From TrEMBL, chain A:
GO terms for biological process: electron transport chain. Pfam families: FMN_bind. PANTHER family: ION-TRANSLOCATING OXIDOREDUCTASE COMPLEX SUBUNIT G. Residues 1-23 form the signal peptide. Residues 89-169 form the FMN-binding domain. GO terms for molecular function: electron transfer activity; FMN binding. The keyword Electron transport applies. This is FMN-binding domain-containing protein. Keywords: Electron transport, Flavoprotein, FMN, Phosphoprotein, Signal, Transport. GO terms for cellular component: plasma membrane.
From TrEMBL, chain B:
Belongs to the ApbE family. Magnesium. Can also use manganese. GO terms for molecular function: metal ion binding; transferase activity. Its cofactor is Mg(2+); Mn(2+). It catalyses: L-threonyl-[protein] + FAD = FMN-L-threonyl-[protein] + AMP + H(+). InterPro entries: ApbE (IPR024932), ApbE-like_sf (IPR003374). It holds the Pfam family ApbE. The keyword Magnesium applies. The keyword S-adenosyl-L-methionine does not apply. This is FAD:protein FMN transferase. Coiled coil: none annotated. PANTHER family: FAD:PROTEIN FMN TRANSFERASE, THIAMINE BIOSYNTHESIS LIPOPROTEIN APBE. Mg(2+) binds at residues 146, 254.
Length: 176, 293
């Protein structure tokens, strides 16, 4: 429902924007594994959440469970690494969450962040309006400007996603 | 000499997305380890100054700062000093004691009973007693949300500056500071349409922060509220103005954006010049104005 609303909202912009969605890639899955489970061997575990389990997780976390199959890896020491996608208000974010054998969150990394900017930054007209003294002469048109300042974007969606995964550990993963 | 590498990491911290970009002549693995330690500095600031975390210095003060003096971490003490100093210079326009009004509008969580949320306290009631001791002259609630994010960025950059990197950028949801990269370029969001970027800018100082009176929706959902409260009327500001401030440190940039949004215009030049800072205002009509003028 929410996803559909998002697509509806952005469809016109996607058609008009030559760059479309800007995807910022921070880490590959393998890099995330090395950071979050350093020096540990992990094996992928197929976890399918039953209807009852999904209901129980939703009740405990107060967060909707959108996917039935978990992308989860288990380390030899009982820790877990879970790859997930969280929908923010305007963006889709791939995250990796590490949970230790006591159910404590040990780390959260953003893998990919997609949002609706990027096309403006690539336009030469936009780039010509630089503020500041020495900018125009030194402007490198090919270099992407990735740092954006503006009123803070809330990371509440991530907090909710992590909460859902911690309850998923409590209800399902700890028994595996 | 090892090859120069660049890495970029992002973690959800301080209620937003914190991005760290590092460039240096060392392995990517080493850069990732150093970024991890910089994130840890930010997490420390979050633990001390969070309004949400009941164990933070801020929550301890808000519970019983009016009963007896409390010892806080030197970092918390420093941030309180900076906040009070700016309140004095802006004649109270910048004020970290407006938390009860934020709680009431649903922008901050409620820890205590409604009846205990006393709203009479102001910044003058914060007593900084030296030796890290703080007390409140009457019950009040402080919220460092308008200044601690910038401070956290500074702490991460201070740590990174000891590592001999060729460049670093720490960007906490728009509050950012660069290290060793002259003439860096950034983009500033459009106050009329916050999911688009409007204005490109050159980093006139190492740190930049932007505040605007849009973007935050009240939990009640009935009325759009913004996290910037006008201290005199106690009401959320509703204009479509955004203020970006370039400063030497991010705590200054962060706090000065609120000071400019809230203080009478006659004070802007003085407050900005005292910190060698520059403000860039974007209005809903698409105007761009720079201060000091």
């Amino acid at each position: 429902m929410r996803r559909r609303a998002l697509i509806k909202k952005f469809a016109p912009a996607l058609l008009l924007a030559p760059g479309g969605v800007h995807a910022q890639v921070y880490l590959s899955r393998e890099q995330a594994r090395q950071i979050l489970l350093p020096g540990k061997t992990a094996t992928q575990v197929a976890v399918h959440l039953s209807k009852d389990e999904r209901k129980e997780i939703e009740k405990a976390s107060d967060v909707k469970v959108e996917t039935r199959d978990l992308d989860a890896w288990k380390g030899k020491d009982g820790s877990w690494l879970i790859f997930d996608t969280v929908m923010g208000r305007y963006e889709a974010i791939d995250i990796a969450v590490a949970i230790d054998s006591d159910g404590e969150t040990k780390g959260v990394e953003i893998l990919t962040y997609r949002e609706m900017y990027g096309y403006e930054v690539r336009s030469p007209k936009w780039r010509k309006q630089f503020h500041g003294k020495s900018a125009d002469s030194k402007l490198k048109v090919n270099k992407d400007i990735s740092n954006i300042s503006g009123a803070t974007i809330s990371s509440k969606g991530i907090t909710a996603g992590v909460k859902r995964l911690v309850h998923t550990w409590e209800i399902v993963l700890r028994k595996l | 000499m090892p090859a120069t590498n660049t890495i970029q990491r992002c973690q959800p911290l301080l209620g937003t997305f914190v991005e760290i970009t590092l460039t240096g002549a060392r392995s990517e693995a080493k850069l990732h380890e150093q970024a991890g330690k910089a994130f840890e500095m930010i997490r420390s600031v979050q633990r001390m100054m969070s309004f949400h975390d009941t164990d933070s210095d801020v929550s301890r003060l808000n519970r019983c700062g009016h009963v007896a003096p409390l010892q806080v971490h030197p970092w918390t003490y420093h941030v309180l000093e900076q906040a009070v100093q700016l309140s004095r210079e802006t004649e109270g326009a910048f004020d970290i004691t407006v938390a009860p009004r934020l709680v009431r509008s649903g922008l901050l969580p409620r820890h205590t009973q409604v009846s205990s949320l006393v709203e009479a306290g102001r910044w003058e009631d914060i007593a900084l007693l030296g030796g890290r001791a703080v007390s409140f002259r009457q019950p009040l609630q402080v919220d460092l949300g308008g200044i601690a994010k910038g401070f956290a960025v500074d702490k991460a950059v201070e740590y990174l500056s000891t590592l001999g990197l060729s460049g670093a950028i720490v960007n906490a949801g728009g509050d950012m500071r660069v290290l060793g990269q002259a003439d860096s370029r950034v983009a500033i969001r459009d106050p009329r349409d916050p999911h688009r970027v409007a204005v490109p800018a050159v980093m006139l100082r190492p740190a930049l922060a932007t505040s605007a009176a849009y973007f935050v929706k009240a939990a009640s959902g009935l009325q759009k509220a913004s996290a910037i409260m006008h201290p005199r009327t106690g009401k959320p500001m509703k204009s479509n103005l955004s203020v970006s401030v370039f400063a030497k440190t991010c705590i200054e940039a962060d706090a000065l954006t609120k000071a400019v949004l809230l203080a009478p215009q006659k004070l802007w030049n003085q407050v900005l010049a005292a910190r060698d800072s520059v403000a860039l205002l974007l209005t809903k009509q698409g105007e761009q104005v720079m201060f000091p003028v």
